[in-house]
User: Fold these one by one.
Assistant:
Number 1:
Amino acid sequence: MKKKLGEILVTSGAVSGADVERAISDQTGGDPSRLGDLLVATGKLSSTQLASALAAQYGLPFVAL
């Protein structure tokens, strides 16, 4: 089973569990944005960190160009 993005981000140390919980709360509170997009928009996560986590989630290699 594929790991959830929030789990991957917390496990890697990119964000805290509280950051993920806050972003999920924002999603359910009316902002339908994706979790990663919310974390990038609030400055908690860089777009490179998000891309790396998404690659890990899908079992793909990540290469920063």
Number 2:
Amino acid sequence: GWSRMTARPNPHDPHSDPARLSARLDSILTEHRSLYERLDGLSERQSALIDEDRTDELLGVLAERQRVVDRLLAVAEELKPFQSRWDDLLASVDADRRESLREKVSAIQEMAQRVNDRDEHDRTRLAAQRKALSEEIAGVNKSRGAIAAYGGSVRSAPSPRYQDRQG
């Protein structure tokens, strides 16, 4: 209708009212930030558990992280409608609200980067641990094979085939 063409908010369309829109965005970003704070804490815990080689507890932290990430994905969906008109929305709100929104986005980006960097570091350490463990297991298997070969020939009677060759 004609009301959409004017700059006046349409009372029937909440998306046309910058104040309501920015309040909704602020609330979504607040939740997003608190989820990232939780994720950041879990990420720190994850690193500590890897250092201490506490695998059982690490699995619990990873399960909790998955729940937080699932919620983050849902919140990210709620942010999608705002992304295309982010600049217009910021331009339409007062300076305090604009600063608050920008600070939240900045905090979220910093935490996301921190979690990503820590995860990359953890992945590298876990891969190195897995390689060392794999080499250790391979060494154990070799020695077990040597023992079995030695033990097997001592314990079992020679087969007739060997006797035939010797006789």
Number 3:
Amino acid sequence: MRILFIGSVSLSASLLTELINMNKNIIGVFTKNESNFNSDFCNLKNIANKAKIPTYMTQNINGKEEIKIIKELSPDIIFCF
């Protein structure tokens, strides 16, 4: 199963780490560089990079470029935590 992961909070980091530890097929991670409204903000780039998972930085997951990338990745499932 091809998993696309979206997240930018501490729960996202924990769940991404768990999926990596379970050797799941994570084909990409979308995260943010910063957030002004999440008190538990967490950039997932370092976690994804250590696992050699492509990382995409975004402030708008519904943007045209983001949608294009998602279509190209062709995930079976998208997790947004």
Number 4:
Amino acid sequence: IDAKDRERMGSCFTEDTLVVYHTGEAHEVRLAGRAALLAYLEKGTAWNGPSTHALSNSVVLVDGDTATVGSFAIAHLVVAGKVHVRGLRYDDQVVRTGAGWQIRRRDHRAIWQYDAAEVPSRVPGRS
């Protein structure tokens, strides 16, 4: 998503993927299918501005052609000159397909968030 590469991003998910964004108290967005996920992402701040997602602390449990993956991440999203910093957890169910390992289900949970002071949208002196 940080590279804004629609094809590569989509290839991470199965055609019939289910992605659930838990975005706050009792609020969630459920997206059924790769096309619905990509349409949702393309309207969002991560797709339409500078962003960096840094993953850490991943646990992968493989069982034949399926696996569960739990990961934590810090996301930095630049929106209207401010940086939204969010702590996330991804809980994924992945499957081995002809295209490699793909995410069949993702639960995306926002754990915490804050907004940083105003920042330039790019590094000064760099185009």
